[in-house]
Design brief:
Blueprint: E1 3-7, H1 11-22, E2 27-31, H2 34-43, E3 48-52, H3 60-70, E4 76-80, H4 83-92, E5 98-101, H5 106-133, E6 137-140, E7 143-146, E8 151-154, E9 157-159, H6 163-174, E10 179-181, H7 182-190, H8 198-211, E11 222-225, E12 229-232
Parallel strand pairs: 1-2, 1-3, 3-4, 4-5
Antiparallel strand pairs: 6-7, 7-8, 8-9, 10-12, 11-12
Bound molecules: calcium ion.
Amino acid sequence: MRRILVVEDERDIAELIALHLSDLPADVTVASDGPHGLQLALREAWEAVVLDLRLPGLNGLDLCRELRAQAAHVPILMLTARSSELDRVLGLELGADDYLTKPFSVLELVARVKALLRRSALTAARAAEAAEDKPSVIEHGALRTDRIQRRAWLDGSEVPLTPREFDLLWHFVQHPGRVFTRSELLADVWGHGHDGYDHTVNSHINRLRTKLGDERAEAAFIHTVWGVGYRFEVAA
Ligand code: CA
């Protein structure tokens, strides 16, 4: 049985979420404050975490940050009260995998969690596949990317990447010269079962480019293909 952790202090909402997620089916555990949520998240294995932003004791942002620092690639769906909070969450780039603004439809929440679960299964399958026959280090010019360590270096200096930025970069370096549309990147890297998140791709690409120094002059690695998407190619 898949195990899902819900960290939400509003009892009615928590119960509603738990009820619907149980139908997936899944084994759902509810934590009603931040510290307890973090403790459970770290101590046990979960296929997904639904995390409210406003929590007593430790807020969802700090909990997410701590969880990502200590563990794991567990998929996280963050719940925020207002779109302004969502902007902040996106700006901080804490490594949540998806976001919903309250009030949300519980069916939408279930659909998002399903997409996260699919992605997590896909990631596991891909990791197994990759471990068999794909190289663990790929070098393009001055850029070295290591799948096992999940780190990248440019001219020998480490490029600090969030988990998602790394996934995006790894996807690109495996397919030099190939053009990806935003939808393809969403499906391949985010694994969403839904669309409408092009701005997510754009903002991640922009941050990745900045980190790779692509903004200073002509793009050295990630090139925009007008009206189509993006292509990874090492400039001569
Ligand atoms: Ca709350």
